[in-house]
UniProtKB/TrEMBL annotation:
<dbReference type="GO" id="GO:0009055">
    <property type="term" value="F:electron transfer activity"/>
</dbReference>
<dbReference type="InterPro" id="IPR011577">
    <property type="entry name" value="Cyt_b561_bac/Ni-Hgenase"/>
</dbReference>
<keyword id="KW-0349">Heme</keyword>
<dbReference type="GO" id="GO:0022904">
    <property type="term" value="P:respiratory electron transport chain"/>
</dbReference>
<dbReference type="Pfam" id="PF01292">
    <property type="entry name" value="Ni_hydr_CYTB"/>
</dbReference>
<keyword id="KW-0472">Membrane</keyword>
<keyword id="KW-0249">Electron transport</keyword>
<keyword id="KW-0479">Metal-binding</keyword>
<keyword id="KW-1003">Cell membrane</keyword>
<keyword id="KW-0813">Transport</keyword>
<keyword id="KW-0408">Iron</keyword>
<keyword id="KW-1133">Transmembrane helix</keyword>
<comment type="similarity">
    <text>Belongs to the cytochrome b561 family.</text>
</comment>
<feature type="transmembrane region" description="Helical">
    <location>
        <begin position="95"/>
        <end position="114"/>
    </location>
</feature>
<dbReference type="InterPro" id="IPR016174">
    <property type="entry name" value="Di-haem_cyt_TM"/>
</dbReference>
<feature type="transmembrane region" description="Helical">
    <location>
        <begin position="57"/>
        <end position="75"/>
    </location>
</feature>
<feature type="transmembrane region" description="Helical">
    <location>
        <begin position="16"/>
        <end position="36"/>
    </location>
</feature>
Amino acid sequence: MSSVASNSHYDPVSRVLHWLTAVIIVVAFTLGPGGFGRQMHEGLDPATRWDIVWHESLGVSVFVLTLLRLVWVALRPTAPHFDLNPWMQRVARMVQGLLWLLMLLLPVTALLALGSEGHPLTLLGGVRVDQMPLIANSPLADAADWGDVHGFLGDTIVWLAGAHALAAIYHHVVLKDGVLKSMLPRR
């Protein structure tokens, strides 16, 4: 029970923001420095590691893009609507909601990890935040091992995004309902 939407495509801004965010997440995950906390405790200056600088810069970019996307969702033209089985609609809403939540939580948990352990935030262009006293002195600092939480959420977003991509391919190949095409450029 699926049919093509009357408005068959997302607007160009939504498509660009979607794909830009997806690419940045994949690159940030790929560059994610394993053992970062341990290396910092051993005296590593993160500014000397291009992968850490890029990972942290891309993480901040994901957060900013997600906030922009949320504003755009409130302002944009109507998104395409597809008549899907109710269970598919529920699963799609749940997965999309989790992806949005993770795109916000991942950068926050990164800042909590850095701030609670006294590590600097190092970004492209030589931007560096050495101290984060609001985080270090907050009750949240000791509430969890934020580095572990960040790593778990990073793995989770990649698996969930993979499931999201596989579902889009399923819609395209099996259901032929235009769901995948709605996020691709018009022909």
